[in-house]
Each structure stands twice: as C-alpha cells, then as structure tokens.
Fold these 2 entries.
Entry 1:
Amino acid sequence: MKFGLGVNANESLRHIVKTSIAAETLRFDYLWISDSPVQLYAPVVASVVASETSRIRIGLGLMSCLLHTPNQLSNALTTLSDNHGNRFDLCIGVGDRRQLRRVGIHTGTQKLPLGVLEAKRRIVSHLNDAGIRAKIWLGAQGPKMLRIADGFDGVLLNYSKPEMIAWAIEKARLRRKPTLAIGTYSPSYVHLRPDPSILQMAKVSSTVVALGTAGPILKNFGLHEILRRVRKMADSSPTLEPIVQAVPDDVIEAFSITMKAPNLHEYLTKLKLLGVGQVVFSYPQSYSLTTIRELTRALNY
Amino acid sequence: MRRALLDLGVTSAAPLSRIRGVVSIAKRSDVYGIWLAEDIDSAADVFVQAGIAMRSAPTKRIGIGMTIPLVYNVSTIARASAVLMEMAPNRFRLGLGVGSVRGLARLTVEVRRPCKVLRETSEALRWIYNGETVTLKGECFELDNYLARYRPRFTIPIYLGVRGRALLRFAGRMADGVILSGPIRYVEKAIHILREEATLRRSAGSPRVVFWLPTLVTRNKADRNLARTMAATMIAGTPANVLEMTGISDGAVDVRRTAREQGYDAASEYVTEELLNNFTISGAPEQICEVFQLLAKLGVSEVVFGPPYGREIFRSIREVVRTWESL
C-alpha cells in the first residue's frame, strides 16, 4: 500500500514547503496538492515543492476540468515535468460544485462524465506528444462518474468509510480493470492525543467534502436529509465554520479518517482487503510537523 | 537625462533552454526584470514558468506580460498570481491584456468590450487580494460570494497591455503600469494620453510605462530580412486606430493586405525603412540602445529587449546588455 499526504493550498507557501520536506523525509510515497477556486494554484505550488524535494511523487489535484481546459492542465504538467522531471501525477474530475458556482461555473445540465473522459483523452494526447509520463487519476464519488474510471490509470475516492468504499467498488465494478489503481483521498486526523482545534478543522474539511457529495451516495447511506439542510445554510455563507455545528459525527466519520493512532492499522487492513492501493491523508493531517509525525508513528505501529 | 530600466522579454513558447539562458543573463547583469509573454498556443504554463524564473533570478522583477482574462477563470489568475507574490513579495508584476483578435478567434473567444473586461478583472483582483468577499457579474466572468481561502493581504501591481485611446485612458486612471507595443511614433501620443488621464487618479503619479516591441540585433542581410518579417507581423496585428494615431496607416496598407493573403514573409517585401524602424527596434547593439534612450526621453520607464533578439540569441542579448550597462 502506498501512502500520500495531502497538503492544503490555503496555507502559506512556507508552511507547505516545510510540510513537503517532512513528508519526503518521513518516506511518504506521494504528496498531493489540492486545487480549488479558493486555494493557491496547485501547479505553481507544486513547482516550488519540487524544487525543495527530490524523491517524493507529487500529485496535482483534484483539478477541475470545468475550471481548467485540457490544454491548461497538460501545459501545467508539461512545464512541471520539463523543469523537475517526471515526478508528477494529475487527478482530474468535476470538483466541488458549490465552489465552482462561486466562480460562475454552473454544472447543471452538462454531460459531465463524458466531458471528463474527453478531457483526459486530450490531456494524455498532449502529454504523449511532449514525451511526458504521468498517471492520470479520476477524482470521483458518484456512480455515474465512477463508471468512466476504467478510462484512467487510477481512481481516487473522496470518502473514507470502508462500507462506502466497498459500495463504490462494487457499484462501478472498479475491479474489472485489473491495472486500475484504487485510492482514497480524505480529510484526516490520525492522532496520539486529539487536539480539539485540529478536530474542528477535520470537521470543517469533511463538511466541505460531504456537501459536494452526489445525491445517490448520500441517500444510500442515510445522509441525504441532514446534508440537504446543511447545504441550504452553506449556500448563503461564504465560510463553513459557523455551520459546522449542525453536522453530525457520522458525517465526519464517513468523509474523514479521524481516529486514534492505534486504530489506523485495522482500518487500513480493511481498505487493503477491498483492493485500495493508495491512501492519501489530507488536511488537517498536514497541519503541523507534529500531526505528520503522529501519522507516521501510527503507520509504523 | 532620465534613464530607462532594461528588461529582457521571452515568450512562454520559447524552449526551456532559452528561458533558462535569458534568466541566467538577467541574473548576472544590471537587467531590472524579465517579462514572460504568454503565447496562448504554447504548451507551457506561464505561471509555473514565472515561478521558476523567480527562483532562478532571486533579485529580479518577474512579470507576466500579458495573460488574457478571457482564457482563464479570474479566480485562477488571482490564485496563480498570489503564489508568485508570496514567493517573492514586491518582485511579481501581473500583465493583463485582451490579446490579439486572431489568437482569440482560434480559441473561439470573442471580446466585445475589451475595456470592460480589463476594468472588471483588475477590480475583481484588487478586491480578492484585499481579502473581500466578492460578488460581481462581469463581461467575461462571474463571482458569487467568492472569498479566497489563502488569506491574501497584499497588492499585486497590475500592468495593462493597451493600445487604443479608450484603453489608454482607462489605464491612465487605473493601472499600476502599462505595457505599450506599437509604432515608436505612437509612444509619445500614448504617454500623453496616459499622463492626462492620470491627473484623474485618486492616488498621485502616473502608471509606469513599459515599452515592448520586437527587438533584434542585425548583423547581415538575413538578419534584416528577419526584422522585416517581424515588422510585417506587428503591422498586421496592430489595430487600425493605433496606426491612424501615428499617421503611418497608408504605408501599412500593402503590408496588411499581403500578410492576410500570402503570409508575413511575403508581406515583409512591402516593409519600408520607415515601417521597419517604427515596428521593430533593430540594428547594431549601439543603435538599439540609442532607440531605448530616445524612448526614455519620451517618458518610457522600462524598455524590453527581445524576442527575437537576433540570430545568435545569447550573444545578441549579452551585447545589448553590455552596451546598455556601459552608457
């Protein structure tokens, strides 16, 4: 199993670099740099990180195919690879619809899975022309989007509960392509002793993911009604902090890896049995060197 | 006499080795800054390139000149620029322009009101960098309760690539700087408009003026032919109203028609000496630097050397830089 650390591109560049160096030193396989309309632009951040590290593989994304054109995405990968070597992967998908709406991108009537698949095809074609080797991952949650997964090198699922992951693998028949890598990318806080303020951050991050989750999944796991109410509140507020109180703990559990360090091993064993080959521990696990070290200790249990 | 600052220019389409070479020369000389022109057909990310240049030349100003708001979501321009600003506060400059009509047509993008596009984009960026929650339905973008989570609290100097009167007037009132490109005769008029409009600004001063035209060292007939082809390219892409401002529109008619029908090489046959000297800065390094000095007298704050530099690119750049330093 490969392990990745997701860095939060809301943090200062200095912090991101410090985190990245720590991730490489602590022998993580991947560093994933998120990209959304309200965060720093991942390709430039990735370039800075690549200059300060030498081995760790750097993933960009999820980068939205609605926010960036296929040319822009392949240009970013080409420029990065030309300058820093073939150390980059890209995860594409639709992205958080709520955030996309804030920048004038409305997803309502488009045939999104086909659009994402076409974007992937064009990106790969450009990369092949430029002689760039990079894995292209699909960032997906819902059954419709997951159906196109076998057109990609891998799929990153944005939820953490083993039952939900099993459901996605089964529903989208992800195992029918044996070479398809299956990974998870979730807000995480694996701790030795919990820090309430970081727990709160994990709650905010999981709420962001939950709010962007497709209806069928929420319905299937009984989360639809509660999230419908939270979504309404979220639509009228530019920040999520004030409404997180309304989100129950089972939502946090479904969309984040928040647990005590000794419990991680059992959790990872479950994922491995499901066929998950990469687990990305996303923000707030990268919050500080302490939280990263706590995760490393948990992984070494 | 007031002396302009010398910058080097390079396009995003240039091979990596050329960009590295230009940055390396800038790093080891008195060159003030580097401008990266975004070529929308190139397979490169100009923001990543700017970041790499910034790290490689740690004391130089790095500018993107220009990027086109119609090609990116405004939030992408904001957050890509924010990383560059964070990498090196006070060294990054963002150039915005609406690009050439032909280039945009290839991307099936249409600009109806360029002035409105630049005004709204500049305003939105300033509000975002001020940490405000922005709602704005603009000509080419829409923001609804948008709040950047990277906690910006800075200003990024915005340079506008403008040519026509309306855009010059707007830039005079609003921009931190302008990137002018056009006939040398036009510069004086353009700067006059900018200064006149600058009196209406809330803050004191005029925008900085960066002048960027194809520049190249010519040593033989082949070099001069290249210069003529560059001039033909510029003439074909210059808006008619800009040509009219300079009184050289008649001479440009044949060049424009031939460029349209047969391409730039054929059009270069119609480039007279006068047109060549108005649409390129070419000749020996001493001649190029003389024109740069003349531009400084007219009020230009920064002059940009290159591309296409000349047949031997790095030799040409070094010669111009050395000549400029020795003045």
Entry 2:
Amino acid sequence: MPLVMIAYYAIAAFLLGLLGWNFVREKKSPDNLILYLLVMVPLILRLLRVK
Amino acid sequence: MKREGLVKSLLGAATLGLLLWGGLPLYRHRHCDIAVVKGPGVTAVERLSAYSPGLRNTVADTSVFVLEGREPGGKAILLGDSHANEPEGLLASLIFIENAVVEKGTLYVIPFFNNSASRNTRPGDGYPLYFDVPTAWGALRVRMGNRDASPLDQWPDPDVYVHFPDRQLLSFIDVRNVNRTWPGRPNGPLMERVTYGAMEIMRREKVDVAVDIHGAETMFPVTNCIVAPEKSVRIATLAALTVKATEGFENHVEPSPAGFRGLSHREIGDASDTLPFLLEAPIPFLDQPTGPKTTKLILDGKDPFLLSLAKRKKLFVPYDESGWPLEKRVGQHCSVILEILRQYSKRNPDKPIVVRGVPRYAEVLKNGVGYYFSDPKKADAKSIVDN
C-alpha cells in the first residue's frame, strides 16, 4: 500500500474519531447528531475497505 | 440525559442498519469468486504476477489459462473483462477456456484481465452487482463490474494521467482503466503493472496474436467492429469480410489511431511483435439514454428509448425490437476470434493456430451462451479455478 494511501486511511480514522467525539458531546441539536452520523458513513465504508 | 442517550442509541442503530444494508452487498460482491471450470484444452493455469511481480498479493492479480496444443505452432492471447462492465468479453473468453481444444499452437486466456474492476461497481448508474446467464443446470452467476479498477486497490487518482512512456496527457480516471495503461511498467500504478504483465507474456512467450474483447455503446461510432493498427489491418479486414460472407453478420474494421496512446490495439503492436486486435460488440446496457440498468437489459439488449433513437437514425448499428442480445454479442466475438486465428494461420503456415470445440455465431445464437458452461458443482474439484 503506498504511503499516501496509508496517510489517507489515517486521516479518515482521525476524522471519524473527531465526528464520533462530537456525536458523544452533542447535547442539544438532533439535526447535528444526524449530520455527524451521515458524514461518518463514507469514512467507515472506506476504513472497512467496502467502498 | 436518559432521553439523550436513547436518541443517540436509536440514531446510531439506524446508521449501523444503513451501513449493513448498503455495505454488505458491496462487500460480498467484492469478495465473490466465480468458479471457472477448466475445459479439456487447458494445460496449465498461471498467475499474471508470475510475469509482473508487482501484482503479487494484490486484487489485480489474476489467472492466466494456458491451452497448449498437441503440435507446435503460433501463439495467441485473449483478454476478457478489460472493461468489466462489458461482460461479452468475459463470457467469450470463458467459452474458450471451457470448450477450446488447441490442435496446433498455444492459447493464453485471461478472462478477468481487470480483476479489480470486476469487483467494483457503478452505483451512480444503478448497475446490478450480478447477472445470471441461464444454463441447462440453472444459472451461471457473473459479477457485473465497472470500467475502471476500484479506488480501494489503486488510489489516489492524479489530476491528469500522464501516460507512460509517451507522456500524453489523458483523463485522470484513465489511470484505473487498463485500456489506457498499455504497455505498462513493472513499478507503475497498479493498472500499468497489469498491462505490463500481459506485455511480458507476449514478449517472453513470443505471442503472435492478441485479442482484447470488448463491448461498446450503440451510440458510439467505434462499435460492432475490429479495431486494428496498420500491421494487423489485413488480417482484420479478411476476418471481417469472411464472417460477413459466410456467417451473415457485420463487423467492420476501424483503424487504430496512431496519436491516441495507451490503448491495447495501439501499444501492443508498437511495443512488441504481436499483432493486436480489439473487438467491439454493441451493448445497449452501456448507452446513456436507456431505461433502468437491469439484468434483463444486459441479457436481451432491448430498450424502448434506443428503439426510438434507431428510428431517428441516431445509432451506429441496426437496432430493432429484437434488441442486441448477449448470445449475439458473444457469438460474434467467438466467430471473429476464430476467423482472426484462421486468417493468421493461412498467412503464416509455419506458425498455425488451430482451435476446435469453440462454437461459432449461429451455434451460440441457437443454443444460448449458457449452453457452453458446465455446472461447477458437478465438476471435479481439481478442474475448478476460482477467480
């Protein structure tokens, strides 16, 4: 796997972590909760090497 | 606090459900192998990585079926699934693997040439993940792939693909298209390593004829034809004229453009002594203005929008209510390949390539494509190759 691909997976994992953290910390807005989850979908699929 | 936890749990569960619903079929498709039954003519099965070590342990590595004749002669290579959304190439090459017996010369067949693309899909176009070819014993389930390799296997794409070695600027997406990465290099992007592997077979084994089997839109001018460079054009023309005279179907010759780099019909001939041919059969499924991209459209090629366009003379092939079914496309390919080999053998009597057992156009039309495949469940385990 080329270095740039490894870096991409690391960035995807980092962003996923940030989104997860924000999801846990969110207290008020259900809209934000849904948005966090939606943004997580492609990152999870990529990290699992599904799509 | 309790309500917040409940909402988050419900939303999380819904997202997980969506991920599984959408992701599992894609995961299964990517990991689904097709059982190829070796026919009586197959004498060896190799891996492309034996010729291009950079493919080892990658999804792009693929099987190379060798059909060595009883007597020496010329050598030919057939490539299916260069574009894995043009399944007539795959099915024609599988028919050769299961049915061909080579009497003189040697055949190399790579049915899943872009193995990564055959495990990719095009969800934006609503591609089905599989289609079933009806057979006497049930159905042969075939992976429907995409034109380009999966970004899971080759990534990132450049802004512009700089072709090797000509340095012509091509579209960024073509870096994952094996019919733009010829002749390839051993340490280039993954798809260049794929084409390099095939070039190495041609150079090391001194292959005389290469046939890259495709399908093309009915609205695309380069369809229903044999694309050939200058060095192959005589044989291509004789093959086209012969199938028209004896078998009654049109398959004209298109010249390979010298200034458009990366294509098999151009680079194979320029980078080796092999004579390249690229076959195109019309596949309505690929046209843009069609109805839904269904498995039925793959099989029967019938579409009311294309019919309407045909009446306005907007298509480059004749098109009527009978559509352009799979058996017609695959049958054409089988006949044209056999005819190219016959014409080559006539012109090179010291290096004949004589193949028997492969059906011609009329037989495939009559019997259907599935007739030529045997049931992998009933076949000897040693004769199965999963790819």
